[in-house]
Amino acid sequence: MSDAPEVGRGVVTPVRVVIGLCLVAPFVAMLWVGSYAKSDPTFIGIPFFYWYQMLWVLISTALTMIAYRLWQRDQRARASRGTGAAAKGGAAK
Fold it and tell me: What pLDDT score does 38 carry?
């Protein structure tokens, strides 16, 4: 046997799937240009193309915040179970 440290593999959990979806959703929404490349409906005189993108700035901020909070909670739970890198002495805060 070798003395090399054991490399922990990432575990896919429902929380991590939600985190991934929160981070990918804005990219999909903005890359699917055909869904918002129009001028109607207007909102207070602003064409749909512009206000849709500005709305996604706010939505992206909220989704990123949610993903970050979920990630923090997941890391704390893993550390308390003794399966995280912090419990193995890998990462110190």
Answer: 83
Give pLDDT < 50 ranges for the chain.
87, 93
Decide: 49 and 36 in contact? Cβ < 8 Å.
yes
CB 36 within 8 A of CB 53: yes
Element (H, E) at 85: none
Cα dihedral angle (78, 80, 83, 88), rounded to 10 degrees? 120
- Max CA separation in the chain (angstroms): 71
**8-state DSSP, 46:** B
pLDDT at 5: 56
